[in-house]
Structure formats: C-alpha cells, structure tokens
From TrEMBL:
Chain intervals with Basic and acidic residues compositional bias: 1-12
Boundaries of every Glycolipid transfer protein domain copy: 105-244
Biased composition (Acidic residues): 48-68
Record-linked InterPro entries: GLTP_sf, Glycolipid_transfer_prot_dom
The protein, known as: Glycolipid transfer protein domain-containing protein
A cellular-component GO term for this protein: cytosol
Region annotation Disordered: where it falls in the sequence: 1-75
GO molecular function, one term: ceramide 1-phosphate binding
Amino acid sequence: MVVETETGRDESEAAAAAASAMDDGPCGEREGGGDAAAKAVGEKDAGEGDEPKEEEEDGRDREEEEEEAAKRGWSEIRLAIEELSAVDVERRGGKPPPPSPPPPTLTFLALSHLLLQVLDKIGPTMAVLRLDVQRNIERLQELYLLDPSKCYNLEEILEKEVHEGTARKVDSCARAVLWLTRSMDFTIALLQRLEEDSDQKCFAQLVESAYMVTLKPWHGWISSAAYKIAMKLIPERRMFINLLVGNCQDCAALKEEIRKLAKLLKPFLDDIHAMMAKFRLDKLKST
C-alpha cells in the first residue's frame, strides 16, 4: 500500500509537472509573439521616422536646384556680389574688423572669370585685354590645381615665388595676380562711371576715362597703341547696358547692384594692392 501510495503521489506530481510545462509553453509562445510584435511596431515606427528625413532632403535638393536655376539668369555684377559677400562676412564676422585674411585664390579666380564676361560684352575693343586676362587666369588656375592646400590664398602664392626668385618674371603668377587686379580696377571704374554719369556721355568717353586712371599708368607704348586702335570699336552705351542687365532686371536695379559691387570690391582690391606693395611688386609695368 505504501508503495502504491508513493507511486500514486509520483504520478500525481508528474502529471502536475506536465500540466505546468504545457501551461508554460503557450505563455512562452505568447511572450515571444509579443516581442516579435513589438519589434515589428518598432521597425514600422523607424520606417515612418525615416520618411520625413527623406522628404526634408528632397526638399533641400529642390531648393538648391531652384537656386542654381535662378542664378543662371543673374547678371555678372550680381554674381560678383554673391562671391564677395561671402568674403565680406568672413572678413567682418559680425564684429569690429580684425586684420583682413589674405584674399582667397578661388574667390579671386571666380571674380576674374566674371571680369572676362564683362569684357566680352564690351566687344572686340577689349580683345587684347581679354586675351591677357584669360592667360593670367589660366596660369594662376594651373598653379592652384597643382596643390590647392598650399595655394589657398594669394599671399601664399606670392611668398612662394618671391622666395624662389621668380615673382618678377613675365610668366609668373605674381604678375598674373597684379594684372588681373588692375583689370578689375578698370572694370569697376568703368561701371561706376556708367552708374554715376548723369550727362549721358558716350560710352567711349567713359571707357577712356576709366582706362586713363587704372591701366594707362602701367602700360608701355605697345599696350597703349593697341588700346588706341581698340577704342575705335567701342559699342554704344545703350547696347552695353542692355547686355549687362540680367533677367528680370531694369536699369535702376543695375545701378543699385553696381553700387553694391563697388562697396564690396574696393576693400578686396585694396587688400591685394597692399599685398603686392608688401612684396614690392606693385610698380611692375608692361611693354
């Protein structure tokens, strides 16, 4: 009897254990199912969270494309203002101006390319000057591309050539910087005369006036003779203004942009002239 009782107890305990195991099984499955469901919900939430980010990135891309499309209709003057505005912000930093940083090479090259476009609008008159500008841009650009980190600003380029003893050579980048700067002096002087002139002088007079104070002092007799011949091909004033005006712009807006450009460009060019004087390269002349 004792044996039977113990056996019965063992069987009862075994049955209870089996029942417990059966109960645990479904619970385990339910808990596992709950974890999977939670994971699925989490993945769904994560997926839903990614959608606004993608939409935001798409929105930024569209804005950039629209901005680029708008810039295609800008005048060269407005594009130059855009380039110089970034330099002006860096220069001021919203505080009283510290010593100006050396002029960035890329900004200088961008302005030089815009200068070419303005000279193209003047026409064949500026063919000789335009060719010089283009060659100087190419020379400076080639040097920059060889080592952008060492040619980040113009002062580094001048220091390198002065140290090597090549700065005064005809094909030096120092001369390229000098003549590109003088060409910008001429361009802004011409634009300012165009903006300020109330007597409606002929365009040839404005060009000659700008030339006499910016390029003439540094031109030898060959360059001066070439200029005199070119003066015979000066376009009409109205034609030049029409070529300068960008899309959706009028003469009043053009004058305002010329004033803005002059205000931004003058300190930039002054810094370059001061830098050239520092290296005693500011008095070099052409033939």
